């Protein structure tokens, strides 16, 4: 069974990736003067509309994961990496 710190690292990186996806996907799809398919535009608008809730959930998951990792960390380099990743989310 994986340790709590390993699970917390996976959750922290996943939260960062999902938070970035909430911003990048609509920006990538919704370009002016570029033909867009109806289904991808609808998905981009749905992602854009739900991005506030999604990023708040990602921020909460990242904060909880950072606290779990921080409490078990002894070196300042690990703490700095956790803090940078949590802030990026």
Structural description of this entry:
The chain is mostly helical. It is 81% helix and 0% strand. The chain is built from four helices and no strands. The chain has helices at 4-29, 38-49, 51-71, 76-88. The radius of gyration is 16 Å and the shape is elongated. The protein starts with a helix and ends with a helix.
Instruction: Please tell me what the overall shape is.
Output: elongated
Total count of helical runs of at least 4 residues: 4
Mean pLDDT: 85
End-to-end distance: 27 Å
Topology as H/E string?
HHHH
Could you tell me the strand content as a percent range? under 5%
Structural class assignment:
mainly alpha
How many runs of DSSP E, i.e. beta strands? 0
Q: Cα-atom Rg, whole angstroms?
A: 16 Å
Features:
single chain, 89 residues, mainly alpha, 4 helices, 0% strand, elongated
Give a quick summary of the entry.
The chain has 89 residues and is an all-alpha fold. It is built from four helices and no strands.
Question: What is the secondary structure topology, with strand pairs?
Answer:
Elements: H1 4-29, H2 38-49, H3 51-71, H4 76-88
């Amino acid at each position: 069974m994986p340790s709590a710190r390993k699970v917390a690292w996976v959750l922290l990186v996943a939260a960062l990736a999902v938070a970035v996806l909430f911003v990048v996907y609509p920006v990538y799809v919704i370009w002016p003067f570029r033909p867009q398919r109806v289904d991808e535009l609808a998905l981009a608008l749905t992602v854009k509309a739900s991005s506030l809730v999604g990023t708040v959930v990602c921020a909460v998951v990242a904060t909880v994961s950072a606290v779990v990792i921080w409490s078990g960390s002894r070196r300042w380099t690990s703490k700095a990496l956790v803090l940078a990743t949590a802030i990026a989310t």
